[in-house]
Write a structure and sequence with these properties.
The structure holds two protein chains of two kinds. Chain A is α/β, with parallel strands linked by helices. Chain A contains twelve helices and 14 strands. Chain A has helices spanning about 45-50, 70-75, 95-105, 110-120, 140-150, 170-180, 195-200, 220, 240-250, 275-285, 300-310, 310-315; strands spanning about 5-15, 15-30, 30-35, 60-65, 65, 80, 155-160, 185-190, 205-210, 210-215, 230-235, 255-260, 265-270, 290-295. Chain A is elongated and about 75 Å long. Bound molecules: adenosine-5'-triphosphate and magnesium ion (MG). Adenosine-5'-triphosphate binds near residues 17, 39, 41, 44 and 45 of chain A.
């Protein structure tokens, strides 16, 4: 069974609020799905339904083949879940907390000790194991929650903003950890940090107002940006206006723009196609010398803004 | 089944992580001692038994048990740890039962620590220790009833103060419905069957006989089924309100 998570027309309405409004997607083994969307988009609500905490208004979810409504206990056995805000029992120490989780996960004796030690090691919380959780810093609390989620080495991980509140080093560590685990698991993470999409996700899903807006690989998402394959160029001793006039004449260029601070100009391609070769050749054929030239990546923040704001929806309609 | 034990253990240890447990036990013992000697006239009665001690328990519990039960679910809901708990591979009944048993064991411990009173009566006279044992059993059963009520109510709200006040009021109703003055009020106009029905719902009616040493299975059954019903309601409330 390679399809580890199957979400089928899932919805949750709170009275008038359609927090999640009919979403469908699946995640297979080896995939890390990045769950993106503005505040209140319905990311956490979707995760709460998948993990059996919230009952859907309609639709259902299956995890490792088990239906969350019909077989909640099997679903919960097969997943590790880091809820939003990483709740834990404040008065416990990470050590006693993880032992409790291990008990519930059916681990005992040497297996239990090994699982606790390994989770603590991987979440980098060994140095705070005997300090009450309520006295830990926000980042450490999050890591305790992460340790709890990975403790029993589950085939599916559902992590709601796992890197929120972590320092840059820790973010890096957690991303490495997720990359290490990715191979034999199916992982869903929600995040507001767009670099994470490239760093860890094999696929990204943007949701807004409870509906899926985009579902694709990070590269596919970037390709939706107007900057994708755009070229910025500066030519030695030639006014940028003249360069722009030349570039505007090329078939693959849709438009050009002058960059501030005498940084040259930028040309945008027609429908995102690569054009750097044609462009540099055109410039050289004028006998001009290129000072700087670089090809832009797509800007994910721009794509995100476009697909999640109202203008975009009107534009698409 | 094992999960009930794990949850109970965690919960029980949780009481001792904060001063709440010690404060509760001390207040319980102080109030129990005070009411036994001053309100119950322990010495003046000149009898070697613990009846004055046990007769105060319904009132003590009305006041003190809500302080234990209020945090059972309210706190989980307030801190969000309920989301963690309810997404572990356990059933709602295991969670409800584990928490209830922890609270019950804790109350049992407080009750047990009143043993110096038992030593005192044995030192001063020659009491019927079977009656005293029955008193302890009855008291523990009654405490379970109060805890089950309070636990269910604490699942209704995130606010521990509201949980405390509501539990106190409902507990009071369950006690007062067997209290002389209240029954007199009803017997003036209500049909006899109704008065008896009201009285039969009271903790007092059922506890009184046990605390005098008469363990009637009907009284035991009353408390056990009352606990079961409230725990069942507790599970339903947790299920429907956990995410609000
Ligand atoms: N228990 C509830 N009662 C009423 N409305 C709710 C409830 N839980 C969530 N909502 C609403 O559902 C919508 C989706 O919330 P959700 O927490 O899923 O968003 P999110 O995508 O996780 O946002 P964020 O990025 O801020 O975490 C929001 O409008 C929220 O107010
Ligand atoms: Mg969220």
């Amino acid at each position: 069974m390679t399809l580890r998570i199957e979400i089928d027309n899932l919805a949750k309405h709170f009275g008038e609020i359609k927090a999640v409004d009919g979403v469908s997607f699946s995640v297979r083994k080896g995939e890390v799905l990045g769950f993106l969307g503005p505040n209140g988009a319905g990311k956490s609500t979707t995760m709460k339904m998948l993990t059996g905490f919230l009952t859907p208004t309609y639709g259902t979810a299956r995890l490792c083949g088990f239906d969350v409504l019909q077989n909640p206990i099997e679903v919960k056995k097969n997943m590790g879940y880091l809820p939003e805000g990483a709740p834990a029992y404040a008065e416990m120490t990470p050590d006693s907390f993880l032992r409790f989780i291990a008990d519930i996960r059916g681990l005992s004796g040497a297996d239990k000790l090994r699982a606790v030690a390994s989770a603590a090691e991987r979440a980098r919380i060994k140095q705070v194991m005997f300090q009450p959780i309520e006295t830990l810093s926000k980042g450490y609390k999050r890591r305790v929650g992460l340790a709890q989620a990975i403790l029993h080495n589950p085939p599916v991980l559902v992590l709601d903003e796992p890197t929120d509140g972590l320092d840059p080093n820790q973010k890096h560590e957690v991303r490495n950890l997720i990359n290490e685990m990715a191979e034999d698991k199916a992982i869903i993470i929600s995040t507001h940090i767009l670099e994470e999409v490239h760093a860890i996700c094999t696929r990204a899903l943007v949701i807004a107002n409870g509906k899926i807006k985009v579902d694709g690989t990070p590269t596919e998402l970037e390709a939706m940006s107007r900057y994708y394959n755009a070229v910025s160029v500066k030519v030695v001793g030639v006014e940028s206006e003249k360069v722009m006039a030349l570039l505007n004449g090329l078939d693959k260029v849709s438009e050009t723009e002058l960059l501030p601070l005498d940084a040259g100009c930028r040309a945008y391609p027609v429908s995102g196609q690569a054009m750097v070769a044609e462009l540099s050749q055109a410039i050289r054929s004028q006998g001009w010398e290129i000072a700087t030239l670089h090809v832009e990546q797509g800007h994910l923040d721009e794509v995100f803004r476009n697909v999640t704001t109202d203008q975009a929806m009107q534009g698409a309609a | 089944m094992q999960n009930i034990w794990f949850i109970m253990k965690r919960e029980f240890n949780g009481y001792f992580a904060t001063p709440v447990a010690y404060v509760f036990i001390i207040i319980f013992l102080l109030l129990a001692g005070f009411s036994t000697f001053f309100v119950g006239n322990f010495f003046e009665r000149g009898e070697a038994d613990l009846y004055p001690f046990f007769s105060m328990h319904p009132w003590l519990y009305v006041l003190l048990i809500p302080a234990i039960s209020m945090r059972l679910w309210s706190e989980e809901r307030k801190t969000g740890s309920i989301e963690l708990l309810m997404t572990l591979p356990i059933s709602v009944f295991e969670a409800v039962l584990g928490k209830f048993l922890a609270a019950w064991a804790f109350t049992g411990l407080a009750l047990l620590l009143s043993f110096p009173l038992w030593i005192t009566v044995n030192y001063l006279g020659d009491p019927d220790n079977g009656v005293i044992l029955a008193g302890y059993v009855g008291s523990l059963l009654m405490a379970g009833g109060f805890l089950a009520i309070g636990g269910c109510i604490s699942a209704l709200t995130k606010n521990q103060v509201i949980a405390f006040v509501l539990s106190l009021v409902v507990s009071l109703i369950f006690v007062l419905s067997g209290y002389g003055i209240v029954l007199d009020f009803f017997s003036g106009w209500a049909p006899k069957a109704l008065v008896e029905a009201i009285s039969s719902f009271s903790f007092l009616t059922h506890f009184d006989a046990i605390s005098k040493g008469v363990i009637d299975m009907r009284d035991v059954f009353y408390f056990v089924s009352l606990i079961a019903i409230w725990l069942f309601a507790n599970a339903i409330v947790v299920n429907s309100r956990k995410a609000d």
